[in-house]
Amino acid sequence: MTQPFSSTPQFAQQVAQIEGLLHNERTLAQQSLDQLLVQTRAGRDAVGFITAVELLSQITYGDTSLDLQYEALQMAQGHHLFAAEARLLNLIGCALYASARYQEAMQTWARCLETAELSQQYVCWVKAKMGLGQIYDALGDSASAVHLHQEAIERCAQLDDRWLLLQAHINLGVNLHKLRRSEEALAAFNFALDTARELKHADDEAEVLMRIGELYVAKQAFPLALRSLDSACVIAERTGYRWAWAQSLLLRAECLLRMARPKEALQQVHQGLEVAKQAGASHVRMKLLYLLAEVCEALDDFATALQMQRQAQQLERQINQSLQREPLQQIAQIAGLSPNADQMLLDLASDARLEQGDLPVLSQILCQTACKVLQLAQASFWQWSADRQTLHCLLRVAQDGALLQAGPDVPRNKLELLFGYLDAGEIVVAHSAAQHVYTWQWSELSLHLQGISALILVPVRLNDSSVAVLAFEHLHQQRNWQRDELQHATQLGLLASRALAQHQQRQYQLQIARLNEQLQNQNEMLEQRVTERGQALQQASQKLVQAEKLAALGYLVAGFAHKLNTPLGSVLTAASTFSEKSSEISRLLDAGAMKKSQLEQFLAEGHTIAEIIQRNAHRASDMIRDLRQLAADDDAMLAARLGLKSLMDDIIARYAARSDASLIRFHNLLDEGLHILSYRAVLELIVAQLIENSLRHAFMPSQSGQIEIASQYTGAGQLQVLYRDNGVGIASELQQKAFEPFYTTQFGQGHSGLGLYQVYSLVHGKLGGEIALRSEPGQGLEITLTLPASANLSSATFAPAG
Predict the structure, then answer these.
(1) What number of CA atoms fall less than 13 Å from residue 697's CA on the CB side?
(2) Would you say residue 659 has pLDDT above 90?
């Protein structure tokens, strides 16, 4: 990118000379600045051009000034000169305000505040604040305007900028005057007047004198007012400050009219109208026309008075249009009688042709809509070549849909900077195509020959890549694109992306349809093979299930055999010992050598051996009973509609009477109206096993505790039974083993390890539910049983509820 810096000594000297003329010789300053603009524009000196525009904006007004400011703004944005961008946004806001385009001015100053904060241009921030205060003043909210100007004055004091402080006091005085705080207003004006004279700013001195005269007019101190206004007119005319001159002429005319000197007032009004026109001050012209009507009426020229009154009203309506659309136009748009940009975009978004048309049709629809939405004479659609070295103009469309001459195509080697920007997916906004950093070469190449003076280029992206460009083209003069226009252009670009994506999707669908046709022919050949493979897979699956069952059975049998081996081994050992002892006693009896002590010892040992055999036989019997319960034929069990609370009460009553549960408090929190259609015996066995598990493992023999049973419906025909104890809990690494068969933490103490496994099997098998365990060491245990409100009863025998 070309460096946008202007650093020649000659340029610095020119700027210094112009700055010396600005506040005292405005006409000479403007002539010098006009020459500087031509010089910097020809040399594509961005910084020099921006500097010239900033200086010129201090002494000129109207659309000409606005065009130059937008041209400079696009240079600042193109070269990423953020400080200059903030200053230019402030100047544009001032120009829009002077033209009574308050809504656009407010938006511009709001952007200026954001940019000024980011670029740390605090002087510019203060100016934007004062600008917003002027808008509040124009809208009749003088109190808010005073607040904003006081805020600006506080920041000015920190910045030590005397001229800025002067401007803030002028604006503050104006609004204080409107609030009828005349003494405070006069103090503000006098401070500004002293500062203007100290700085030798004759133009600012003229404005302050005009404001003081305005204050005296309001107080009807006409001689004092004329004295200030006479001085203001002389200084403003000499410095070329036309706005202050026009305002002063307006106030002098009003003074003369109130002093019954209408002929002199008439002369002042006519002169004021000419000066206001030159200044581009619409609101001053409006006030002068209203005053002229009064003067003509005072001179008994009622026809002219009526004519001036109508002209003033017409101008006032034009000014008000910047704040609010005409009511009839608004109603027409609501009723659909007048085109509306948002409605046109909405209609385009739902246009079926975007989804069904080919690329030329899509492009034509998009370009025609772009012309209507942005009020353009033409728009064009461009595509990248396959090697992305050329932008090819697919078509160019007029607002009525007529096809215009396309092209010419644009090569990358001539516009590398522009192509790189578009490749990155960035939108190019050229208020003046001939001066924009990215488009001036294109303008020289072909745009100016086609009469294209301003344009917006919106990349059309597909799959994160720019595939086309939608161009919004304005003919024969600069166009200062507004924020809503840029927003509409962006929306059209998004619609173009969507249309191209759908066009690409249709192409893919056609390819897929052809492939599907080929695949369908092969499917018939594959169906038989799939059927054969399916049958083989089903047989393999059945074998795998059977193998898993056998493996599970083997694991169960192996575990049971291991557990049963301990008590049976003890019985066998005890029986062998008893047999040996009996043989020894028989030998002693036969020999007649048995002593009484030996017999007594044999009887004691026999008693102990009998206890060992009995105890281990009971253990083996219990284990066999648990295994038989696990494998019992549940289909013989009876199903019934059960009241859960009464069922739990019965189970709790049995355990509460046991000595090992004397310190345990049971809480049955179930609702009386909670019922379930299920198997009573299975539910009793499950809950009993859970309580038994808590009594064995959760609490020490002398420890108190509590067990709680609650439930809730979960919807979808299910309910949950929540079983909790506040015992020792289970460590996280042991929780996964809790439902495994033969797993117990009290190995060798007479426990089979089948309790929770049996619960798990019954819940998942017979009842068709789910079980979940949650516990923390020292925090107790919670088991959640999720059960169907109606169990699997396909093979059940039903019994009355009870």
Answers:
(1) 24
(2) no
